[in-house]
Predict the 3D structure of the following.
Amino acid sequence: NQWCSVVRWEKETRPFLRSREFLWQEGHTAHSSAEEAKVETQKMLDIYKTFFEEYLAIHVMTGRKTEKEKFAGAEYTLTVEALMQNGICLQSATSHYFGQKFAKAYDVKFINKENEYEHVYQTSWGASTRMIGALIMAHSDDRGLVLPPKIAPKQVCIIPIANEPAIYAMSEKINELLKSKSITSYIDTSNKSAGFKFAEAEVNGIPIRIEIGSKDLMNDSVTVVRRDTHEKEVINLNNIIDHISTLLVSIQENLYNKSFNNTKERTFDVTSLEEVTKIINETPGFLISYWCGKESCETKMKEIKGIKSRCIIESDDCNNHKCIVCQEKAKHKISWGIQY
Ligand SMILES: [Zn+2]
């Protein structure tokens, strides 16, 4: 398991999403049985899903890639698919089951319980700095970056509004208290105007801003502003640490819920190509349909604004449905979308 830089000869690049050189995390495992390797493939997919949902606060859809979209060297590819605020899909992490393909090609063997040589069963899984692109696009607003508290390098920015020793002393005190509760914070002591400091904290996506002015000091209180909703509250100093701790949890939850709701609102069950064309032009997102499993139908879908299959979704009622393209008996339930 390692982070390293890789190179792809991309014709068209896009910062954080598609670049010619980027950092990625890749892991490889070798197993003595197919079952064990398949369990590992699923386990890593679940780890990526958990990371996206619980840390990056991005709701994801998971499933298996089609033969056309899987990694060519894999027996099958599992994928984590995220939807951005504008309804464009992003393949965010993948986990592959290789079977014995590479083991046979490179003659990688082990001695099994029968004391015989056997080719290993492999998995491979990865995510990249594309996650940063997903993070930016999933949560940002017109004021700039919005970072989920769990991954924000600084969770709180303290801004002394007036240049007074008492205000600075109060800022220091709150900063120390936050630190003692393992909340990461800093005081903006620069000479910039208060308005500039507020805007800068917003652009940088700091989850919480604490403003301390002369009036606040007189009332033993501070003004607390959350980045995600811009809500402002005056909080008594006695409650400040508890309030900030609770607020960080609430912001993390709110960002995930927003992502979840955006995905829900942009996920459509579709049964005809007319419907697909209409939705993809008006409110793109995940389009769910049934599919016969043939590549020709996947290619046909691509003619509509470059739609690609995202992932095959587990379903046992395919027998009662028809392929959205050719109207033949369906084999899979599948999601489609436009991708970055
Ligand atoms: Zn078909």
Observations:
- The CA atoms of residues 288 and 335 lie 4 Å apart.
- DSSP finds nine helices and 17 strands in the chain.
- The two ends are 26 Å apart (CA to CA).
